[in-house]
Design a protein that fits this description.
278 residues; alpha/beta; Rossmann fold; six-stranded mixed sheet; five-stranded antiparallel sheet; 25% strand; binds adenosine-5'-triphosphate; binds magnesium ion
Amino acid sequence: MVSVEKDISVESLLNQPAVTVTNLSKSFKGIPALQQVDFAVRNGEMVALVGASGSGKSTLLRTINGLQMADSGTVKIFDTPLQSDSKLHSKARQLRAQVGFIFQQFNLVSRLSVLENVLIGNLSRTPSVRSAFRLFTQAEKTRALAALDRVGILGQAYKRAALLSGGQQQRVAIARCLMQGAQIILADEPIASLDPESARRVMELLVDLNRDQGLTVITSLHQVQMVRFYCDRSIALRDGTVQFDGETTALGDEQLSNIYGAAAEELVQRGHAEMLTG
Ligand SMILES: Nc1ncnc2c1ncn2[C@@H]1O[C@H](COP(=O)(O)OP(=O)(O)OP(=O)(O)O)[C@@H](O)[C@H]1O
Ligand SMILES: [Mg+2]
């Protein structure tokens, strides 16, 4: 665990920055994907990351947990640098253990059981020989089963991951983050491949974990009505720059046109249609 021991009180912990991004820039072959991005997310916030396709959402999320190196700028997790000016900090591994990542396509090992998929979420803390042979202790199995219970799919523990529905697989991915001991969840379009009912359940699980366990959540979402319903704060990117950072209620149609350009009208209309059908 990375220390947050300076002044322990509920108030001080809530005001601690969980993720701080300073002057972050990244280009691919000379084309900027992130340009001097700055923001801070406090412990226990639930933040939507929005923007048109190619605006830099995935690049930003991947850079926050060090899957991707920025060209310049700093990412801090709990006030400790994870990467700075394209160098990983020596504490990066410990910091990354506190940051869970959820992908649109779930990224489970389909031939392994649900339980094994959750257990390997703990790999960064498990000696490599043991993990290679998938030898887990009873205590680890108990924790993994508790994580599956928390996400509501304990009954599927011994099934092969491939046999689960998309919504169930995404809940396994969330259980894996819990097993890992993540305090922060970064989710890249976690509901984009799900039917409306499964999407709603996954979002409600993330909201529960945020409210009950104080997990900090940053999630990219392309459905505006989901952003408005589930996330109090939004950060919007356009061409790799922050166009909006504030209360989601202030994200009106005019701001959406700024963020999405010509695609905005279609997006809002699609949102209304999904509300009616979903
Ligand atoms: N590995 C890569 N190699 C080259 N270019 C990349 C790479 N990853 C991202 N890019 C480019 O960086 C820009 C931002 O891409 P990114 O995937 O972060 O956008 P996004 O907002 O997540 O889009 P989407 O909504 O389609 O997922 C795009 O122009 C993309 O083509
Ligand atoms: Mg993306």
